[in-house]
């Protein structure tokens, strides 16, 4: 009987048994590798793994237990830490919701003063451990006492306008254009309070907001001068103009001096720009006038808060004449 190789009994030389080429990859999985070798610290049998676990356990022990629920701060709340800062905050009228004190310090004179202020304000006084206060203040120097400050409640723009109705003087509002330093905002509020401004207007974006720093720098002026925050500063200025206000921007290249401002005896908005870029283009175009503060030629510009304070003083003096 003839076979496939042409003659009886013939066999193909070199023929092999087993899997033929093109077998459909039935052994592919067995031929694939098991991936990269795990790091020593990830191999459960390796000494490096045991060292890693020991370090994690030590870190967890050092961190201590989680803060009690009552000690967690609500969103937007901040802490003022340290005996002197807390005493100054309480004295300047900063609103606060709770006081945290390490129990062993109750006999300290400054802590006792803080505790009396908390009692007068009806604010809860919570005794904490030093380690708890460490975690609450992220390791800041707290000296065993901290004050919880709630978020600031901004006024409406109409409230700033209405404030002038109760005054014998024309309305006066300070607007800040892209002033992002909270120290500047606090200093402006202090000047606004000193020179009887009806309020301060800031934009929601690209501006400092009222926080603990602003409260401290303003020396309590935040409690006396309402602050309105608007989404669109240009639109807010247009609204004030519709209410009879004249808008005067402050810039080094202004066409008149603040000391001779002809609009001082009418409802007025003084607009101060950022220290670097000054007034933005749209805000400047919205102004009815742009005034300058004469300074020495070797000085490029004034700090935003300083310029605002000088302008407020000049307006106050012009209105007294």
TrEMBL record:
SMART domains the UniProt entry points to: SpoU_sub_bind (SM00967)
InterPro entries for this protein: Alpha/beta_knot_MTases, Ribosomal_eL30-like_sf, rRNA_MeTrfase_TrmH, SpoU_MeTrfase, SpoU_subst-bd, tRNA_m1G_MTases_N
Region (Disordered): 1-47
One annotated GO biological process: RNA processing
One Pfam family cited in the UniProt record for this chain: SpoU_sub_bind
Keywords: Methyltransferase, Transferase
A cellular component annotation (GO) from this entry: cytosol
An example Gene Ontology molecular-function term: RNA binding
Domain RNA 2-O ribose methyltransferase substrate binding intervals: 79-155
UniProt KW Methyltransferase keyword: yes
Family: Belongs to the class IV-like SAM-binding methyltransferase superfamily. RNA methyltransferase TrmH family.
Entry protein name: 23S rRNA (Guanosine(2251)-2'-O)-methyltransferase RlmB
Annotated source species: Arcanobacterium bovis
Taxonomic lineage: Bacteria, Bacillati, Actinomycetota, Actinomycetes, Actinomycetales
